[in-house]
Amino acid sequence: MNGISSWESAGQPAGALEKDLELTESDFARIRELIYQRAGIVLAEHKREMVYSRLAKRLRHHGLTRFGDYLARLERQPQAKEWEAFTNALTTNLTAFFREAHHFPLLAEQVRDRPGPIRVWCAAASTGEEPYSIAMTLAEALGSRASQAEVIATDIDTDALARARAGIYPMEQVRKLDEARIKRFFLRGNGRHAGMAKVRPELADRVHFEALNLLAPGWSVTGPFDAIFCRNVMIYFDKATQARILERFAPLLKPDGLLFAGHSENFSYISEAFRLRGQTVYIKAPR
What we know:
Layout: H1 4-8, H2 25-39, H3 48-61, H4 67-76, H5 82-89, H6 103-111, E1 118-122, H7 129-142, E2 149-155, H8 158-166, E3 168-170, H9 171-174, H10 179-185, E4 186-188, E5 196-199, H11 201-204, E6 207-211, E7 225-229, H12 239-249, E8 253-260, E9 274-278, E10 281-284
Parallel strand pairs: 1-2, 1-7, 2-6, 7-8
Antiparallel strand pairs: 3-5, 4-5, 8-10, 9-10
Helix pairs in contact: 6-7
């Protein structure tokens, strides 16, 4: 198994942080405005502790002690690479294989008898568990035609995408899948790689990862798609932003294409582009 070192260097859980850095109310307000402008993320007032803990590492990296100095540096350099680190730090990546499991049988039913290539867009790929779950579902549903399936997986967090591309996960996380899926879609690590599992190349080759900001004026992805998964990301946007994104999703879907939302998301009263088909599953509304 290759790529273990890249997984190990992708970031470690943050430990407890001493509050030795200065974060004023004005700084926090600026951070909330900047991440909203950059990524559409709405940070609530109670997220101050999270903001401190996640951005403190960036200040220390640059040898700074005041958030105000860090923000001033960012604003002076609108094209700086540090904006990527700033955005990555404030992005939440909570995911798992086959999370919200009721969606995957619906996807299988949607594609099983379709002729021609099958294309699915996962618009919040995070560290890869969701797009690989989609790819596994397509492989099982399509059988010998699985090579005609493609999953486009995008995310704004470039650190998470690096881990997703590596396709390497702790075995205790993969072990939650049934044994047949583990044998079919993963390689087990041995020796110094014991306790790890890697997505098999034949599955990984069907998933294409790329960075994409849903707020960007232009998207690199092109339709048509049989389904779009945009789950548990819209909750971080305000209603106006949600509506704009939904309107942009609609023309990228095939006429009977499905849009999968997260368990706490409801698009019924936000956009007329979609109508509810089932539990957090939408279909394009006729125009």
